[in-house]
Amino acid sequence: MLGFGRWGLWATTTMCQRSRADKHDAHNVPMTLLAVAAGGVLGALARYGAGLLVADSSSDIAWSTVLVNVTGCLLIGLLVGWHDRKDRHHPYIRPFLAVGVLGGYTTFSTYALDAQILLADSQLVAAAGYLFGTLVAALVAVWSGLRLAGHGHRVESDSGAGEPT
Asked: Which residues, at least 6 apart from 111, have a Cβ–Cβ distance to it below 8 Å?
């Protein structure tokens, strides 16, 4: 796969190649795809539910999109931190939770569309606040998730070059 580092393609590499942590054979690809699909259904339902719970109509900002993207970032941080601390992993945890559930739950495309709509409406300050505010909140959420899960090191690249924080 592409060289985005150990966690850049963390969730999806399980389906395409053997991971150091999860050694499962190609004959398990159908089960991996089933795990992704099942997780995707749950994530999409959670995303839809969040949209129903958080009404966006009274604001120019799509708060439901902010909510799912930031909480999704917190959850991926927790998942990576938890996964790093365990010696053994079930081979379907990553595809089910990271690709399926969190992939179906979070929504980068809606984030980009919402920003484009704000820009098209000449709401430059709201668009900038939405774009940068969501980005900062998402990064803080991932960092917080890693820390809450007890991840005491920087996320390492495939070369294994990471330094304690």
From this structure: 62, 65, 69, 134
Tell me the whole-structure pTM to 2 decimals: 0.73
Q: How many CB atoms lie within 10 A of CB 22?
A: 19
- First-to-last alpha carbon distance for the chain, in angstroms, is 28
Residue 108 lies in a domain: yes
4-32 pLDDT, tens per residue? 344 444 444 443 444 444 444 545 889 99
d(CA 58, CA 62): 10
Residue 10 forms part of a structural domain: no
Question: Which residue, among 74, 69, 97, 89, has the nearest Cα to 146 in the 3D structure?
Answer: 74
Q: What is the DSSP letter of 155?
A: P
Angle at 110 between CA 106 and CA 111, to 5 degrees: 85
Q: What is the DSSP string of 140-152?
A: HHHHHHHHHTT--
Q: For residue 141, give its domain range.
A: 27-148
